[in-house]
Amino acid sequence: MATLQGVLELHSETGTEGGRWAFQDAAHISLEPASAVFGHGEAVYDPATGRLGRAIKAQRPDGSRAASIEPGAVIYVEVEWTDHTTDTRLMSDLLTECWSHDGLHVLKNGNQLTIYDPGDITQVLWSGTIQLQPYEPFTQHAYGFWIRTDQLGVDRQTWARWFLDHYPAQLTDD
Q1: Judgement on whether residues 104 and 163 belong to the same structural domain of the protein
Q2: Is the dihedral of CA 69, 74, 75, 81 positive or negative?
Q3: pLDDT tens digits along 52-74
Q4: pLDDT by residue (tens digit) across 139-156?
Q5: Distance CA 118, CA 7 (A)
Q6: How many angstroms separate the most distant Cα atoms in the chain?
Q7: Spatial CB neighbours of 158, under 8 Å, sequence gap ≥ 6
Q8: Mean pLDDT score, 3-22
Q9: Statement to judge: residues 57 and 106 lie in one domain
Q10: Per-chain mean pLDDT for the chain
């Protein structure tokens, strides 16, 4: 059995088939120069200050939305930092997380999972054995996303929020 540290994720291959509760191993997350930040909650890191945050808006100097990004484009990114302050940075000054599929673990019954408070990772929010209740495709959703299973004994919206917001976690996988 391996015990891994990482973050939670609602994983969906195409975004249309319904998500699966998953875990991304931190050993397979790297920080790379930002090349495409669109302001959809992407995790960003400012190496000049050491701050972590989420991109909430990306725009060009003329104020238009950055829907596509050409090489060398000047893009301003509004960031909400983990201390809940916001400010704007040049995209070229930020790093973003890059996740490798090698670190993706779709949760299955019998996995042991511990979920931590992102504001204080010493605080355990939930810990237990994964027991998933399966559903037919396209019959259940959480926050507008199709889901394929629920974790028994945990409120669906609470569980989904932990995964959509990429809460820190520990997974014991066999």
Answers
A1: yes
A2: positive
A3: 888 888 888 998 887 667 777 88
A4: 999 998 999 999 999 999
A5: 10
A6: 53
A7: none
A8: 88
A9: no
A10: 90
Residue 128 has a pLDDT of 97
Both 61 and 116 in a single domain? no
Q: What are phi and psi of 114, to 5 degrees?
A: -125, 130
- Average confidence (pLDDT) over 121-146: 94
Q: Are 112 and 64 in contact (CB under 8 A)?
A: no
The tokens 């945050």 sit on which residue? Answer: 53
Residues 72 and 13 in one domain: no
Domain around 133: 2-28+100-173
Residues 89 and 144 in one domain: no
Same domain, 21 and 39: no
Nearest Cα neighbor of 97 from 48, 47, 44 is 44
From 46, 78, 93, give the residue that closes a domain: 93
Last residue within a domain, chosen from 93, 111, 136 = 93
Predicted pLDDT of residue 37: 63
Q: Are residues 167 and 107 in the same domain?
A: yes
What's the token pair of residue 159?
A: 């569980």
pLDDT at 130: 98
- The tokens describing 127, both together, are 């810990």
